[in-house]
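for the recovery benchmark. tokens below, seq after
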């Protein structure tokens, strides 16, 4: 091996160490351990000792309900914003099983200008939720803009495994 090859290898090694010092440090620490199983055992013991602190590693049922709730409300809002009132109306169901009145045709005379969720929270062990939203809408013919605060009650249907809202947005009552 000539002197220039040795210099090139040392330069390359030095460059690698400067750029990837964290990886080199981890590799050296792992190599210096007498047993990798020992380190794995320590980590497992630490995990068992602090398992409540590591809840974020696995979703529980409430987290899945929360994710489904956020997805459902987001879809509901998108359908309303784009004027797909029939699609949004499919999430309207009464908890006690009463028949939902059909969607009135006069709702199609309005357009949602903005829909902002001010607050939302899930209660009753993940079976009920409240959403407070500020909704601005206008009548297509006149252009008169109206802003309302809508308090919605959502409920989770265990059998259907989905969320439903108790009542549709009160557009017609506010004009």
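predicted aa per position
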């Amino acid at each position: 091996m000539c002197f220039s090859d040795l210099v090139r290898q040392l330069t390359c090694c030095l460059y690698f160490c400067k750029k990837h010092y964290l990886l080199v440090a981890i590799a050296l620490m792992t190599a210096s351990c007498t047993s990798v199983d020992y380190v794995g055992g320590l980590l497992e013991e630490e995990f068992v000792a602090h398992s409540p602190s590591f809840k974020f590693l696995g979703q529980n049922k409430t987290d899945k309900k929360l994710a489904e709730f956020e997805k459902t409300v987001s879809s509901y809002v998108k359908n309303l914003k784009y004027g797909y009132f029939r699609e949004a109306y499919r999430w309207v169901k009464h908890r006690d099983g009463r028949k939902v009145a059909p969607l009135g045709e006069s709702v199609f005379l309005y357009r949602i200008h903005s829909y902002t969720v001010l607050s939302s929270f899930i209660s009753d062990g993940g079976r009920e939720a409240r959403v407070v939203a500020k909704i601005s809408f206008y009548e297509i013919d006149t252009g008169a803009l109206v802003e309302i605060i809508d308090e919605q009650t959502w409920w989770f249907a265990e059998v259907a495994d989905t969320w439903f809202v108790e009542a549709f947005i009160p557009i017609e009552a506010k004009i």
